[in-house]
Amino acid sequence: MTPSSSSPARTRFAPSPTGMLHIGGVRTALYDWLLARKTGGQFVLRIEDTDRGRYEAEAEQSIVDSLRWLGLDWDEGPDIGGPHAPYTQSQRLELYQDSVKKLLASGAAYEDDTTPEELEELRQRQKAAGTPPGYDNRGRHKTAEQIEESRAKGLPIVVRMKVPDSGTLKFDDVVRGQVEFDFSLLQDFIIMKSDGYPTYHLAHVVDDHEMGITHVIRGEEWIPSTPRHILIHQALGWDYPTYVHVPLILGSDRSKLSKRHGAASALEYRDQGYLPEAVFNFLALLGWSPGDDTEVMSRDEIVQRFSVERILQHPAIFDSEKLLWLNGVHIRGLALDDLQERVLPVLERAEADGGLPDSVARPLNRDYVRKLLPLVHERLKTLNEVTESLSFFFVDDVNPDPEAIPGRKSDPATATGYLQKSLELLKTVEPFEPEHLEAEFRALAEKLDVKPGPLFTPIRVAVTGSTMAPPLFDTVSAIGRDRVMERIEKALQLLATQGSATNA
RNA sequence: GCCCCGUUAGUGUAGUGGCCUAACACGUCUCCCUUUCAAGGAGAAGAUCACCGGUUCGAAUCCGGUACGGGGUACCA
């Protein structure tokens, strides 16, 4: 067992609230959480809101909601505080300023008054000359007097980190192994913007150190800037954490997953009727596996078996079909009580939001729902499907397509005859229980000398309005004699009017 | 352009030098069960392990190159 998975790890998820929390980000948070729980450490939530231009207040809420929904609880965070509060970077500005002062004092960093316009001009020239773009470190040669002059004139001043002109930097990544970079390719980079806010590079380094973070788990897009982060750690005299760069999640076209690929936020999956444990399970498997063929796992099992060493190096494509399957598996594994609890809110939503028709009175009869659930339990792939599969049990009227009533292998005239016979039987059959009903109807089929199909299909369509439904006699029994007979009579009328229409 | 990372069936993964005539799962197809739809069961198709070369008695596994894909190259994170 390696140290990284045996000693308590302090991990952090540090999203920037600039939009909907992406499913890729959620997976990173999942790995953070998993490592912390696995090792008996702590999971910290920190909001990195240093980009004032892109800040969105709602984004922060969606981050919190997403993590909560998936059960990724944090031990320290902006809402609950902790020993290193505050956990929002815009409230920790003095801390970054202190570090900047130290870096300035030691000569590791310097102030630079190069304006954005000058930078743009430089870029244009490099582009025209065909040379690699990048800052030319001109600020290194500015004198203190020059900077003061610019400051007095109100010009923007930034602080840049000085990068060595030559040499290489190697670091070990848990996922990639040893990664090596050449300093000569890196330019002096900004650690403090002219608005006084730190850049990500500085802020997260200071916070990770100050908060005692042991493992930085983040997307692989951060690999190229890791040398900067190590440089800052070293200049401040700090050890740097263990880096775990996880592969990206791609859409079906192999580009970075985005809104174009359909539901991209965790909350959309919630709204579509996915179980948090299924999404949890699925996301864990996107870039990690326990090492054998086990796929369906509970949260606890995943915590049990998780290790950062087994995180894959290559990106994965998000396969929504497999998620759908896995969701069905998890739904089938739910106890009836649990299922009922999750499904009731769906059914009782407004019709426009995917609930039962508004004509159905709320609250629903719990006992009735409870009785129906077993009929559809194993058929559900999402929670939301419950509305459609149970709707005909609740509405007054169902509207079958007349052409669908006879079924594929029969015709309206035959179906009419069968429905009439069925009506007679239904009038008197007793008890009105599934088993007895089935026995009686099978006997009727024999008497009529037909297979069950042509007899049962018209009943099913008449009663449920659909060719696809739960087992017929459970359904008939649950709906009750009177309503079943009403619906069959209505179907007979439909067949009659349709017949006369085609004859005319 | 330059730098970094990656590459096993359509997809997710297993595989860490001989057990690989490459396994499992999703998806697809066929059949069984069956009143429909699911679920379940049995099977099938689908991969020259990106390509080329090297190391080795032996390579999906190690090394090099090429191709392709992705990422980075901001006073975004």
Reconstruct the topology from this structure:
Layout: H1 3-6, E1 10-13, H2 23-39, E2 42-45, H3 57-70, H4 93-106, E3 109-112, H5 116-129, H6 144-152, E4 158-161, E5 168-173, E6 177-182, E7 189-192, H7 200-210, E8 215-219, H8 226-235, E9 242-246, E10 249-250, H9 266-271, H10 276-285, H11 299-305, E11 316-317, H12 320-332, H13 336-347, H14 366-376, H15 385-394, H16 412-428, H17 434-448, H18 452-464, H19 472-479, H20 481-503
Parallel strand pairs: 1-2, 8-9, 10-11
Antiparallel strand pairs: 3-4, 4-7, 5-6
The chain binds one RNA strand of 77 nucleotides through strand 6, strand 7, helix 7, strand 11 and helix 12.
Overview features:
504 residues; mainly alpha; Rossmann fold; 20 helices; RNA-binding
Number of distinct helices:
20
Instruction: Tell me the CATH architecture of the largest domain.
Output: 3-Layer(aba) Sandwich
Query: CA-to-CA gap between the ends?
Result: 82 Å
CATH superfamily of the largest domain: HUPs
Level of helix content?
A: 40-55%
Topology-level CATH name of the largest domain:
Rossmann fold
Instruction: State the CATH class of the largest domain.
Output: Alpha Beta
Low-confidence stretches: none
Q: Output mean pLDDT.
A: 93
The overall strand count is 11
Radius of gyration: 32 Å
Strand order of the largest sheet: 3-4-7
Q: In percent, how much strand structure appears in the residues?
A: 5-15%
